[in-house]
Structures are given as C-alpha cells and as structure tokens.
Predict the 3D structure of the following.
Amino acid sequence: SQTIHQWPATLVQPVGSPLSLECTVEGTSNPNLYWYRQAAGRGLQLLFYSVGIGQISSEVPQNLSASRPQDRQFILSSKKLLLSDSGFYLCAWRSGGAPTQYFGPGTRLTVL
Amino acid sequence: AQSVTQLGSHVSVSEGALVLLRCNYSSSVPPYLFWYVQYPNQGLQLLLKYTTGATLVKGINGFEAEFKKSETSFHLTKPSAHMSDAAEYFCAVSDILTGGGNKLTFGTGTQLKVEL
C-alpha cells in the first residue's frame, strides 16, 4: 500500500531564516505531487505541483519554491521566511491515471 | 474555473442526530467530487468520492453523499452522529491543470460539532 510522509511535523522559525520541508511517498511510482498551504481563514491553497522529476509548476507567486529531485520526493523551500508564511503545509500525491489526491500528515510552520 | 461553496462554516448536531453538510459546485465539465475530513493538526482523509456511475456514494465511517447534477450539489450525510465525527469537513471538485495533472478546488470547510 502507499504511504506519504512529511517532516518535520512542527517547526518554529524566525523571520528571515531559510526553510526546507520534505515529503516522500512510498509504494507507488511516478506520482503527481502537490504542496498546499492551509492558513487561518484562508482555506486550502495549492502552491506547487509536479507531474515528474524536475517538473515544477507554481500556482501562486510567492516567497516559496519547490523541487523534485527524485521520483517520490518533493521539497518545499524558502530562502527567507516571512511572517505570512506561517501555516499548515500539506503534501499530497495522486496516481497519474486517477483523480483522487491523498494527503500527508502535514507540517505546522510558525514564523516568529 | 471550478468553484465549491459549502453552506455553513459551523454545524452543530446532537449525538445520534442526522448530519447534513451542504456542498454546491460549479463546473463546466462533468465533475469529480470529493469529501475530505480533517481532525485537528492532521492531514486530510478521504471520506468518499464521486467520479462516474452511481450517484449515491458511500464512504467510510457511515457517511454517504449524493451527486445531483440538476442541483449542482454533493451534500454529505450520516444518519446518526457520533462524538468521534467532530472535525472539519471539506468538499472539493477536481479540475484539470494546464501543466498536466489535476487540481482540487476546495470549499472553505464546515466545522462539525457533536453535542451530547
């Protein structure tokens, strides 16, 4: 069966510091991968998605970037965090031929 | 672009009572529709989905939803609420991305409270 991992589970970072969040999927190959952010009062927002290694598409221009160095690894990064980057970050995967997305456990990021 | 409207950001029911969470969507093509549940500080868990075929779909934990094309609705129901059902529920519609793959457009969520 497929599983999706995210780490860290929680993170507290100062403004201006870098960020790296990691997501890995097991039990499938060539998944579509997604990063969402859930901020208070703003619902779920798609940030990035990837249909293959090295292929990244951005939905919302912002202070963040994403990379996919391996087939089942998706990384969310920032060079300098802003207060507005605080939120709950969710990674999701989808099998190429099916519409359903499956979510990871999330990372709670607090920028102080 | 697709959109989803969830009526009622907060719903409160008594334990054992019917749960009804409303979802309406707009879509220019036959939609794929989903309900997810989120417990505090956890990821989203798939409750059920409609893709094609039978319009009444059953999911986990006794939940079901009916796709009504004429009403552009996909309301979530459960005959008898349990305390463990207290969570936030999200309705979503699938859309196609220009770069390939699909995208889920979510409603703003409904917080379900179950009271004794």
